[in-house]
Design brief:
mainly beta, nine-stranded mixed β-sheet, two-stranded antiparallel sheet, 25 strands, globular
Length: 423
């Protein structure tokens, strides 16, 4: 009953600052006193403990003033979670923003520069803010000659993105194309494409994106969606280090687009040089042979062009059209393709077909339907034997692979993408 009757002082000033009493607000839950603004010497922020922790009542300093600017000490705020010192405003020479490291990351404790002033303007340091997520430099106010806003880049987003225009073909849906030069879109036409990505980020899309011609229904058949793909950006100096990753959609003409089905792909990463990786759930992944300078301005990489360099040997196969495509057949999703021998991908197809509840006669020629990893050609069915079976795709790839000098059926097509370091 006493919570609502507790008196709270908000602004009780004197000496012209409006914030002179030690106890400006009382805690509604415990009725303990909390000092918010405790002023003196004309600046309004002069005591060491200007705020007490709302939960525990421990002292938390927000503004500690001196030299007339109100922000002169190193520890202007303490982390409410663990009590460690966090400097917000560290002033000098009257500007209040002279210290380069004026904020520490609440999560990690490392220095983050908020306002780093000079020449009286408070915003002269080019690196006036660091990204709280990755520590990358973000310039907010970079001033000069007293104006505080003299640079061309006064605000840069905390979360940066780069754009890349990727073109690639998946072998499976272009082995027997309905239209020359275009992948088949049977999964879309059969309504088998999931609206939730099968990859780690599990992003969702509007079902209308899988309509003929896209969500508006007025697009070209070339732009109809074939399947989901997974895109990675690898650090230029550490091929195993993933900087950005996300789900995307691949169209019939090979364009890899954002999840709206039409836009160029944007990936969260600071502009820099990166290797570009394309992966698919039952095709072998590929990586660019060189790092690319990526930024907010779109950069194109056409993996279907035989001139485009890819990392490793025989990362893709060449189609009869001369275009390049990702090898099909990684039905186990373990970054290799094997037709026979232990752990082969053909057995994955067989086991799926025989285990299908609809296969009541336990026939190896049965066709399973759906969005299946065992469906190597992405036609909506997985078939182990008989006409048009998926196992033959694996066999043909293994026997024809340039690295299989002896033409053995037990040869393994290994991924050319370096393993990722997930740490």
């Amino acid at each position: 009953m006493g919570l609502t009757s507790q008196v709270f002082g908000q602004f009780n000033g004197s000496n012209g600052d409006g914030f002179d009493v030690a106890e400006v607000s009382a805690l509604s839950l415990s009725q303990s006193q909390l000092a918010i603004f405790d002023g003196g010497s004309g600046d309004g922020f002069d005591v060491e403990e200007s705020l007490k922790h709302v939960l525990s009542g421990t002292a938390v300093a927000i503004f500690i003033g001196g030299n007339g600017d109100g922000f002169a000490v190193e520890e202007s705020v303490k982390n409410i979670l663990n009590g460690t010192a966090l400097a917000i405003y560290f002033g000098g020479n009257g500007d209040g923003f002279a210290f380069e490291q004026s904020l520490k990351n609440v999560l990690g404790g490392e220095s983050v520069s908020l306002f780093s002033g000079g020449n009286g303007d408070g915003y002269v340091h080019a690196d006036s803010f660091k990204n709280l997520l990755d520590g990358a430099i973000v310039s907010i106010f970079s001033g000069g000659q007293g104006d505080g806003f003299a640079s061309d880049t006064e605000v840069v987003y905390l979360i940066r993105t780069v754009k890349v225009n990727i073109i690639a073909f998946l072998q499976g849906p272009i082995i027997q194309p309905d239209s020359p030069g275009l992948m088949n879109d049977d999964l879309r036409a059969l309504n088998f494409l999931p609206t939730t990505s099968p990859y780690a980020d599990e992003v969702d899309v509007d079902p209308g994106i899988f309509d003929p011609g896209g969500i508006s229904g007025g697009g070209l058949a070339n732009d109809d969606i074939v399947d989901w793909v997974w895109i990675e950006l690898r650090e230029a100096n550490s091929l195993s280090k993933i900087i950005g990753r996300r789900s995307a959609l691949i169209q019939r003409d090979g364009n890899i687009v954002d999840i709206d089905g039409t836009s160029l792909l944007s990936i969260t990463a600071n502009p820099a040089n990166y290797y570009v990786v394309v992966k698919h759930r039952n095709h072998m992944g590929i990586m660019s042979g060189n790092s690319l300078a990526l930024s907010e301005l779109p950069v194109q990489i056409d993996f279907s062009d035989p001139i485009t360099s890819t990392f490793g040997s025989n990362a893709q196969l060449q189609l009869t059209t001369g275009k390049m495509a990702l090898w099909a057949g990684d039905t186990a999703g373990n970054d290799n393709v094997r037709f026979s021998g232990s752990g082969n991908d053909a057995n994955i197809i067989k086991d799926h077909v025989l285990g299908d509840p609809a296969n009541v006669f336990n026939s190896v020629t049965f066709s399973s339907s759906g969005y299946l990893s065992s469906d190597a050609d992405l036609n909506g069915t997985a078939k182990f034997s008989g006409a048009g079976n998926d196992s033959n795709i694996l066999k043909d790839n293994v026997l024809s692979h340039p690295g299989n000098g002896f033409g053995t059926s037990t040869y393994t097509i290994d991924s050319t993408v370096p393993p990722a370091n997930e740490n």
